[in-house]
């Protein structure tokens, strides 16, 4: 399903400002990890480095998911009043 990232990614050039469009495109590609993936394939990556990188990415994904869940819990609406009757 990673190929779905290419769907509906369009950068418009306004007022013949190509530099700004390139900057926006580079920001999009950087945020989605395309540039990191390209840089990794430029040179050989040792198996130990690959394992360390993959383990780091897994741990980071778990941490980010947990933090997102905690933030959504704190920011949820319609939660019961923690101290009823107190103002």
Automatic annotation (TrEMBL):
Presence of the UniProt keyword Methyltransferase in the record: no
Single Gene Ontology MF annotation: structural constituent of ribosome
GO biological process: translation
Domain of life: Eukaryota
Matching Pfam families: Ribosomal_S21
Keywords noted in UniProt: Ribonucleoprotein, Ribosomal protein
InterPro entries in alphabetical order: Ribosomal_bS21, Ribosomal_bS21_sf
Signal peptide: none
Family classification: Belongs to the bacterial ribosomal protein bS21 family.
Any GO CC annotation of this UniProt entry: ribosome
UniProt organism field: Aphis gossypii
Protein name (Swiss-Prot/TrEMBL): Mitochondrial ribosomal protein S21
């Amino acid at each position: 399903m990673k190929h779905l990232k290419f769907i509906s990614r369009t950068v418009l050039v306004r007022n013949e400002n190509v530099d700004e469009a390139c900057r926006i495109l580079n920001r999009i590609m950087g945020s989605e990890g395309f540039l990191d993936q390209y840089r990794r394939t430029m040179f050989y990556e040792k198996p130990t480095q690959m394992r360390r990188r993959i383990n780091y990415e897994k741990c980071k994904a778990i941490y980010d998911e947990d933090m997102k869940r905690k933030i959504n819990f704190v920011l949820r609406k319609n939660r019961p009043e923690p101290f009823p009757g107190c103002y």
